TrEMBL record:
<protein>
    <recommendedName>
        <fullName>Protein p34</fullName>
    </recommendedName>
</protein>
<dbReference type="InterPro" id="IPR027470">
    <property type="entry name" value="Cation_efflux_CTD"/>
</dbReference>
<feature type="transmembrane region" description="Helical">
    <location>
        <begin position="80"/>
        <end position="98"/>
    </location>
</feature>
<keyword id="KW-1003">Cell membrane</keyword>
<dbReference type="GO" id="GO:0015086">
    <property type="term" value="F:cadmium ion transmembrane transporter activity"/>
</dbReference>
<dbReference type="GO" id="GO:0005886">
    <property type="term" value="C:plasma membrane"/>
</dbReference>
<dbReference type="InterPro" id="IPR027469">
    <property type="entry name" value="Cation_efflux_TMD_sf"/>
</dbReference>
<feature type="transmembrane region" description="Helical">
    <location>
        <begin position="157"/>
        <end position="176"/>
    </location>
</feature>
<keyword id="KW-0813">Transport</keyword>
<feature type="transmembrane region" description="Helical">
    <location>
        <begin position="39"/>
        <end position="60"/>
    </location>
</feature>
<keyword id="KW-1133">Transmembrane helix</keyword>
<dbReference type="GO" id="GO:0015341">
    <property type="term" value="F:zinc efflux antiporter activity"/>
</dbReference>
<dbReference type="InterPro" id="IPR002524">
    <property type="entry name" value="Cation_efflux"/>
</dbReference>
<dbReference type="InterPro" id="IPR058533">
    <property type="entry name" value="Cation_efflux_TM"/>
</dbReference>
<dbReference type="InterPro" id="IPR050291">
    <property type="entry name" value="CDF_Transporter"/>
</dbReference>
<dbReference type="GO" id="GO:0015093">
    <property type="term" value="F:ferrous iron transmembrane transporter activity"/>
</dbReference>
<dbReference type="Pfam" id="PF01545">
    <property type="entry name" value="Cation_efflux"/>
</dbReference>
């Protein structure tokens, strides 16, 4: 991030706040027009969207700060805290919706001005869908957990909104009033699942979860191919921290090899890994041949 100018992740997070507020306004109007508890549930989830977008903005800005004496590995993990907060907010919203759905089930009523209300809700959902797809694409490119969490939550919101719109239309068409609170409860269940899944992924990042097995296999192949002159690599470990992937392993070289020669091998491995993995931070411990374990990555 250049001095005085926000980076691309920060600009996306700022735009997310504006989109979330606009969508919340439209969904609140849809609920006000109809009085539908299902549309109320949809609007309540948008309140969570606004709070989550604000948290994501704060996390993205903080994670962009450079490493310092107190945080020598940087501040990238701040984005996981935002994702955890978003997961908690989603769960709270789901519980509030369930409470409203129960009250509406005890005293159901026909939605008012359904045509206009559903039209407004459909426009809000279309805006959400477009922004969720953009956030998902850019979040992956920037390797931002906060933006990806926001995108997944918005896409979950789109799915539930489509179901709510169809369901409220069904209520109007059939006159079966309990469809409305039933849809609100189903919306809450979907939101609750989304929240728990988001919490699981975010906690995995905070707990230094390793890269996926397929990625680790690619790393092993690159090390084996690029470590010509060495004997083996062992104790290969990895972890995620926001947009960074930290890799660490021991490289065993012949005892007679010079420091310069072993350093050249390390440089070659690092260059290949960084070309394959964006944001890779690599630490290689060089050891003499007596340290070989015969259980690591053999050099091709």
């Amino acid at each position: 991030m250049t001095e005085g100018r926000p980076g691309p992740a920060t600009r996306l997070a700022m735009a997310s706040v504006a989109v979330a507020i606009a969508v919340l306004g439209m969904k609140a109007v849809a609920w006000w027009l109809t009085g539908s508890v299902a549309l109320f549930a949809d609007a309540l989830e948008s309140v969570v969207n606004v709070a989550a977008a604000l948290a994501a903005l704060a996390a993205v800005r903080y994670s962009a700060l450079p490493a310092d004496a107190n945080h020598p590995y940087g501040h990238a993990k701040a984005e996981y805290f935002s994702a955890v907060l978003e997961g908690v907010l989603i769960v709270v919203a789901a519980l509030l919706i369930l409470r409203e759905a129960w009250g509406a089930l005890l005293a159901p009523r026909m939605p008012e001005q359904p045509g206009l209300g559903l039209a407004v809700s459909a426009i809000a959902s279309a805006v959400n869908a477009a922004w969720a797809m953009l956030l998902m694409r850019r979040g992956r490119a920037l390797r931002s957990p906060a933006l990806l969490a926001d995108a997944r939550h918005l896409w979950s919101d789109v799915v539930t909104s489509v179901g709510v719109i169809a369901g409220v239309g069904l209520v109007v068409a059939t006159g079966i009033l309990w469809f409305d609170p039933l849809l609100a409860a189903l919306t809450a269940a979907n939101i609750l699942w989304s929240g728990f899944r988001l919490l699981r992924e975010s906690v995995g990042g905070l707990m230094d979860e390793a890269v996926p097995p397929a990625t680790m296999e690619r790393i092993r192949r690159i090390v084996a191919a690029e470590a010509t002159g060495a004997i083996e690599a062992h104790d290969l470990r990895s972890r995620h921290a926001g947009r960074f992937t930290f890799l660490e392993f021991h490289l065993v070289v012949p005892g007679a090899m010079t420091v310069r020669e072993s350093h050249d091998i390390c440089d070659r491995i690092e260059a290949a890994l960084k070309a394959e993995l964006s944001g890779a931070v690599i630490t290689i411990h060089v050891e003499p041949e007596g340290k070989a374990k015969q259980t690591g990555v053999p050099v091709l």
